[in-house]
Amino acid sequence: MIPTPHDAPHDLVGIGIGPFNLSLAALAHPLTALRTAFYDQRPHFSWHPGLLLDDATVQVPFLADLVTLVDPTSPWTFLNHLRARERLYPFYFAEHFHIRRTEYDAYCRWVADRLPALHFGHRVDTVRWNPRRALFEADLTPLDPDGRAGSPCRVSAHHLVLGIGTEPSVPEPLRPLADAPDVPVVHSDDYLTHRAALLAAGHVTVVGTGQSGAEVFLDLLRHRPVGRERLHWLGRTEAFAPMEYSKLGLEHFTPDHTRYFRALPEAVRDRLVPAQWQLHKGIDAATIAAIHDELYRRTLHGGWPDTVLTPAVRIRTAGRVAPAGIELHLEHTRQHTRTRLTTDAVVLATGHRGRPLDDLLAPLGPHLRRDRSGRPRVDEHHRLDLDPSVTGSVYVQNAELHTHGVGAPDLGLAAWRSAVILNHLTGERTYPLPERTAFTTFGLQPRTPQVPPARRAARLTPLADGT
To answer: Whose CA is closest to 164, among 357, 425, 384, 408?
Structure first.
């Protein structure tokens, strides 16, 4: 029989410990009647380590931490992290509304190191619904710091929450090269790991015209000799476009817009998401300005930097050329002209895509209801739509872009979504949420005030002392 690390079933088991499930764990921590556990196969918390560049900032204000926008009195706020590190006064005088990415990572690690419900070094292999016990069961494999597997175990829970995050998106023509261990084609997620080799390469091409591409291009540019930069930067978007950051534009990242978006027909949602790319896939204005300033600085003594910046370009095919070069076959999407580019290294700043749920949830497949495109349906409580025979809930974090819109991956909605899940799970207004969050009225239907969810049969396990 597979051993279990705990005798009693949990009320909620979380799979994956990124910022979103970390937010949920932090807000669940004071709910002493709620028995929770969160698992992640990594040895410790880490947030995009390959992109923790010294000057890169988080694109949401520091108030969009794990908990503040729901509970500013929580012990897990960013400001309390600063207080614990005796850094409040330096932060106060620094006047940083947007903090560095390295600082956000340090804050999350501070929280993760102190929450007892978190269990790193545990790979979740599969989950199933046990109708006899009316419980979910998750099979786990403990991993030591070197990744060696230990004896498998099993945990059970009345409810699950999936926060398994995203994985690098690699364009199809470049996948064979990216998968080859000896070819210098790397995703931006691994940029810092390969940074020394990339700086030493004769010619480097950065693919992707979003924020990550801009940050990588700027870092390479700053560290290559004047007049011998030998850098290409290209991508499919029509321009090196700024991210929409006007105050009313930011209201697309509010619960008001999320509710409006979810009520739209599926076909309308599918058209709207790609049309809103500039809300979350553009480049922040400060990074664009820094790139232009650096390029301009390199013209002060005459001449132009050896750089080529070309938007509206797609890669048709790619391959190796002797002796160790990489050849990219390019096409301009508006001119319909074609050319070849030979380079020594490629950085793919081509974004991320949600990790597929199907492998993990394969035993639940027959119970999972899908939309016309085969994607899981997700309700207003961020639950997968399951057959009524499954009486437990499976909540998802950042797997609902198609149903909840551009706010799904946004850190600014992390605390709100966690509160929605906890309120639904407990059947109470554990965390009161505002009825209105935007000056913009999305749609013509009148606003309907939020009503506390009806008490549901989320069975909370009594603690050992009977509380």
So the answer is: 357
